Amino acid sequence: MRFRVSNFRGSARWLVLLTALSLFAPSARASDYYRHVIFDNSLTTDAYFNSRGSANGSSYLEVRNGRLPVETTRFVTPPNALRLQWESRPDGGWEAEVRVDGFRNRYPELIGRNLYLWLYAPEAIAAGDLPQILLSDAAQGLQVAELPASFTAPLSLGKYAGDLPAGRWVQARIPLADFASASIYPFRPEFLANVVFHQGRPDGVRHTLIIDELRVGDDAAEEKSPAPAAPQQVRATGYDRHVVVRWDRVESRALARYVIYRSLDGKAFEPIGIQRAGIERYADFLGKAGVTAQYQVAAEDWESRRSALSDPASASTREFSDDELLTMLEEACFLYYWEGADPHSGMTRENIPGDDRIVATGASGMGIAALIVGADRGFITRAQGVERLTKIVNFLEHAQRYHGAWSHYMDGGTGRTMAVFGMFDNGGDLVETSFLMEGLLAARQYFYGSSDAERDLFRRITGLWETVEWDWYRGPEKEKSAFLYWHWSSEWGWQIRHPLIGFNEVMITYLLAIASPTHAIPADLYSSGWASQDPRALEYRQGWGGIGDGSHYGNGHTYYGIKLDVGVGTGGPLFFTHYSFFGFDPHSLGDRFTHSYFENNRNIALINRAYCIADPKHFAGYGADAWGLTASDGPNGYVAHAPDAADDRGTLTPTGALASFPYTPEASMAALKHYYRDLGAGLWDVYGPRDAFNPGADWISPIYMGLNQAPIVVMVENYRSGLVWKNFMANPEVGAMLRKLDTVTGSTP
Predict the structure, then answer these.
(1) Contact 468/516 with Cβ under 8 angstroms?
(2) Chain segment 104-158, per-residue pLDDT in tens
(3) Which end of the chain is more exposed for a tag (fewer CB within 10 A), N or C?
(4) Where are the beta strands (DSSP E) in 286-385?
(5) Is 382 helix (H, G, I), strand (E, B) or coil?
(6) CA-based Rg of the chain, rounded to a whole angstrom?
(7) Residue 412: phi, psi to the nearest 5?
(8) Cα distances (angstroms) measured from residue 107 to each of 248, 255, 291, 424, 547
(9) What distance separates the 2 farthest-apart alpha carbons in the chain?
(10) End-to-end alpha-carbon separation of the chain, Å?
C-alpha cells in the first residue's frame, strides 16, 4: 500500500482509513499463524507496545510508560515474555491489557475454541490470588459502548490454572464458550482484540506472574499426528554484525514454529528466538565483528511438542567493507521478493506478515526490478530469474484488467481484483500499473538473450505493454481531460475522479503514457496535467501542502539552505524520489521548472535529512545518521511521513535514507551503518531493515512492506552500477518519448 492520494490530505486520510477498516473473506491460503497467536514475543525489550496497564487507589501494577514490562530471562517462546506484577488492595483496582497486534492486512478472525496461555510464578501463587481475566473484541479494552464492540464478564484465572507452584511453567486452557458477554451486544470470540487481566482478591500481597504465548486454538485431536522431526541441513553464514541461519523445511501439518538455539562456547546451547512455519531462515544479531557462534534448530507444533535439536552449524562475524555492506543489504531486501513472493503467481505480497492472498501490482513492478538486481549480483541464476519472471507474466496475462490496466491489489491465486480500498476501488489503477510496467520494461531489456525462453519473454512483455490503454484514462470520451485519472471501474466508471497532478510519485505514469506505441497520450499533457497551472491543480497542491510553496508546481524556495526547484512545501515524503525513478533515470529529464530531476530529487533528500537534523518537533532518535521520512507503517497505522509539521510523527523509515543512495551516498551510508550496526538488534531481520521504527513511542514495525524493500535493492544498485536505469532507458520507446517531451518543454538535456 501507498499513501493513495499523495497530493490531497483529506482524500488521503479517507483512503488510509478505508484500508484500516477493510475486512477480507476467509481463505485457506491466509497465513494461519497469526490467526492463532495473540502474543509470542516483543520486538522491544523494555515494554510491550501492544499492551496497556493502570492502577488506582492503593493497588499497584508495574508499568513502564503505561505498558507492561517485558521479561527477558524466563520465557516459553524466546527471547521474551510479559511480566505482570501487582498488588491488590480493597480500596483500589488495576487492569492490564494485551492487545492483538493489528498490523495491516492481518486477517481479523481468530481460529479456535480455547484460549491458551503459559504462566510462570517465581514464588508460588494460590489459585484464589490470581487475577481475573476477561476478553474484549475492541481495541480499547473496556471502552466499548458502540456496535459492534463488546466485552465479557470476568472469569477467575485461578479456576483454570489452579495453584501455581514456584519456578515451573503451567499452561492454562480456558474454553472461549465460558466467557459470557457482559456488554449490551454479544461477544464474538473470533474477533477477540484484547485480553484483560484485572484485580481479583485484594490480599495486599505483591505477586509476580510471567505470561507467554497467548493464543487461540483447539484441543488436540484424539489421533495425534507424529511430533515434528528435527530440521535438517542447518547452515550458518556470518556477516558484519549478524549471522543468518538456514535449514530445510520440516514437513508437518501441525508445525507451528521453529526454535533457534545458540552457543558462544560450543557447549551450552540456549534458546534465542523463534521463526514461524514457512520461513526457514533466522537472523541473529550479535552486535560486533569477530564473534563465532554455533546454532541448532528445533521444530515445534501447536501442542508444544518440540523436536530433537538439529546438528549444529557454526559461523563467525567479520568487519565488512562499505561495498560488502551494500551487497549484504541488497541481498537481504531482495529475499522479500524471492522467498516471500506469492507461490502461485510470483507476484509481490503487500506486506509480510499479512493476508497472504493479497499481491500488490506496483510493488510487484519494483520486485521485478529487484529480480534484475538479484540475477546480476548472483543472488539467483539468470535461469531462475527467467523462470520467475515467466510465472509473473503468465499471471498478468490472465489477471483481471480494465482497459489494459491492472487493479491495485489482486488475489495471487486467482488474479481477481481485491477491492482493499472499498467498493469503488474495484477497477483499474493506472498508477500501480505504471510501476508494474516500469519494472517489466526494464526486465524486457535485461532478460533479452538468445534463448527461446528469453525471446518469448520479450514478446509477451511487449504484448502486455502495448495493451495498456493509457489514453482511456483521460476520462469520458466526451470530456477527454487535460489530466490522466488514477482509477476507472467497469461498475462505477469514473466515481474515483482523482486527477494525477505533480509533483509527487506518479511522474512515470505520464512518461509511459506518452511513450506508449499503441495508446499514447499527447506529449502536451505533461504540461496540462502533470505540471498543470490550471486553478484546479493549484488548489489541489495547496490542499496537499497546506501552504502556497510549490502550488504552481515550481517551488523556488530555500529550506535549510537548500533550494528546491520543484515540489510542494519542503518536498514531501521521499518515495516521491524513488517510485517513478527506480527505472526511469532522472538524469535524463529537465524542463522549464528544473534543469535536472536528478538534482531536484537530491535536494528533496537533502532537505529531508536537514529537517531530521534540526528535529523541530523534538522527536527521539533523529539525527545526521537517522533520517528518511517517507510513507510507511507507523504506531497508529500507515502514514506518508514527511518533513513538515503535519506529517512528521516521529517515525523513521529506513527505505527513505537507503533508497536515496544515488542522491546522497555519504549520508545514506551513514544511515545504513547506524540502522544496522547501532540499531540492528531491533531493526535487522530476515528481509533486512524492518519497515519503520519510532524511538519515542518505543515501537518497531512488525511487518515488511513490498513497496519499501525493493526501492532499497534497486536504488542502491542504481547508485553502484546504474543497472536498472540503463536497462529501462534502453527501451526505444523511452528515447522516443523524451524527444516528444523536448518539443513541449524545450529543455530536455
Answers:
(1) yes
(2) 999 989 999 999 999 999 999 999 999 999 999 986 555 555 667 899 999 999 9
(3) C
(4) 292-301, 313-316, 351-352, 358-360
(5) helix
(6) 27
(7) -65, -20
(8) 28, 20, 40, 22, 39
(9) 84
(10) 34
